[in-house]
Amino acid sequence: MSDHYGDFVQSSIGKKVAKNLGLPLPVTLDRFESGENLVRGSVLVGRASGDDKSVSASVSRILSDVHADVYVNSSDDIKDTLADASIETKINTDSDDKFKVLLFDASNISNAKQLKEVYEFFHTVARRVEKSGRVIIVGRPPEKISDIDTALAQRSLEGFVKSVGKEFKRGITAQLVYVEEGAEQNLDSTLRFFTSARSAYVSGQVVRVSKGTSIEVDWTQPLGGKTMLVTGASRGIGEAIARVLAREGAHVICLDVPQQQADLQKVASEISGSVLTVDITSDDAGAEIADAAEKRGGLDAVIHNAGVTRDKTLAKMDEQKWDMVININLASIAKLNRYMLDNNVLNDDARIVCVSSISGIAGNLGQTNYATSKAGVIGLVNATAKQLEDNAKGMTINAVAPGFIETQMTEAIPFAIREAGRRMNSMSQGGLPVDVAETIAWFASPASGGLNGNTVRVCGQSLLGA
Ligand code: NAD
Fold first, then answer.
1. 451: alpha, beta or left? (left if phi > 0; alpha if psi -120 to 50)
2. How far is the CA of 122 from the centre of ligand 1 (A)?
3. Residue with the nearest Cα to atom 2 of ligand 1?
4. Mutate to test the pocket of ligand 1, among 407, 417, 418, 427 (most ligand atoms within 8 A of CB)
5. Are 377 and 430 in contact (CB under 8 A)?
6. Whole-number pLDDT of residue 9
7. How many domains does the chain have?
8. Residue at 18 is within a domain
């Protein structure tokens, strides 16, 4: 979809005009390109003082695996932990050094006073982060901490990270990863996602990594040998999801309504996937999915992407618009999940990923039906996550909540509202379907066994519901 303003400010004259008028200055975001290094620049790593080295040991192992160019501050004893992972660190002394990633292990922070160490680490390098850079803090989930001083300090990190996301601009993202004690070995897929260009339009997010079982993968094809079903795959975000999952090695069963057969067939054949035409609200949808899955040895992931909008203010909304949206966006997902779990359609360690919306978090004028359905999706994810934790088959469920994504759905929004939605975020631009797809591929990875019950917004840190 076209973003004429975004294109204009890329020109030198456009840049000048926008700067002088104080208008938003969206930059071209880094996005995944095959063959590129995971981290496209140097990483400055730090650790708050304290005895627990388990987070930084995992961080060091991951940075070593991805051959990162690592810097540390001279006073920081994290360099010993990095050395244990055979990383040769450089010392951050030259004020001309620029960093692509700032990564801080805050897991030892145990009171308000110690938050000063976060300030000290980031203050001196705040202006030295490259375009499309990454700020990542790793802490401990406050809800699992009984000591009040520690819990408040860990919770404080959220305010810091979200403010950095709003301040740094130039496509720089900021995230907080809360890792449960004993789950540090599950950080790989999350840190790889957040340090890389794959997380281009994800910012200001808080992710919880827990103790589920993560499976080792070949990082060049993390979904290799897996069968994954995507609903609504004939166009828009669903098409991008199908393409990214296939790029990562999965066989994708592309599902859409019979009316979309031609487009669906085209997508499926381009990614060597298969086609399933069925309306997800129909009575036999579960059985048809089960048949298609059985032919390929069961499903390793299902991506509930299909969704519709039928916007009207509540007073003007007829019953049919309400029923249709709730039925497609919410009730059918709950019904299909129940069917798939009861009939062993999902393999052990399967991943369920749902597509919610920031409309379900913030609410939206003219979208009582849609926002209700998308908030319900988050409720479904939270409740199912608990159930999956108990059934010991290694399955997980998570959701993405897209903000303004450039698709046919958003192209239909009236110009002024569309332009506002596009700019009112820390990236000053709309996201692309591929940004949602990359986030889903991260959740769908066998290596993401520690992610269960998360809802991550893919919204460029939209001001709506923030
Ligand atoms: P889209 O309209 O381009 O695509 C939706 C697809 O779902 C279509 O191919 C459609 O045929 C299919 N579908 C609809 N009803 C179906 C049914 N009953 N059975 C099977 N397939 C069905 O929309 P999109 O913008 O690509 O959105 C995809 C998902 O992302 C939706 O769930 C949407 O609510 C969500 N979302 C989109 C945005 C955005 O900015 N585009 C923002 C937030 C959330």
1. beta
2. 40
3. 409
4. 407
5. no
6. 67
7. 2
8. no
**Are β-strands 299-304 and 274-277 bridged in parallel, bridged antiparallel, or unpaired?**
unpaired
CA distance 8 to 158: 35
What's the rounded Cα separation, in Å, for the pair 400 and 363? 16
Q: Kindly state whether residues 269 and 409 are assigned to the same domain.
A: yes
4 in a domain, yes or no? no
Strand partners, 179: 209
Domain membership of residue 297 (yes or no) is: yes
Tokens 């938050």 sit on residue: 115
Active-site annotation, residues: 370
Atom nearest to 436 CA in ligand 1 = 30
CA 154–ligand 1 middle distance (angstroms): 37
Which atom of ligand 1 has the smallest separation from the CA of 307? 32
Confidence of residue 259 (pLDDT cuts 50, 70, 90): very high
pLDDT of residue 169: 94
pTM for the predicted model, two decimal places: 0.96
Residue among 201, 202, 237 to mutate when testing ligand 1 (max atoms within 8 A of CB):
237
* Protein residues with CB under 6 Å of any ligand 1 atom: 231-232, 234-238, 256-257, 260, 279-281, 305-308, 328, 355, 357, 402, 404-405, 407-410
Farthest-apart Cα atoms in the chain, separation: 65
Confidence of residue 13 (pLDDT cuts 50, 70, 90): low
If asked whether residues 235 and 187 sit together in one domain, one would say no
d(CA 434, ligand 1 centre) in Å: 14
How many C-beta neighbours within 10 Å does residue 29 have?
Answer: 20
> From CA 270, how far away is CA 202, in angstroms rounded?
28
The first and second tokens of residue 111, run together, are: 């009171």
Mean pLDDT of 296-308: 98
Q: Give yes or no for a contact between 184 and 119, defined as CB atoms under 8 angstroms apart.
A: no
Average pLDDT over residues 286-306: 98
Same-domain status, 92 and 40: yes
Give the C-alpha separation, 427 to 189, whole Å. Answer: 24
Task: Indicate if 198 and 310 belong to the same structural domain.
Answer: no
Q: Which atom of ligand 1 is nearest to the CA of 279?
A: 19
8 A C-beta contact, residue 400 and residue 356: yes
| pLDDT exceeds cutoff 60 at 451 | yes
Return the amino acid letter for 407: T
Residue 445: give the domain boundaries: 227-458
DSSP label of 314:
G
Torsion of CA 342, 343, 347, 351, to 10 degrees: -50
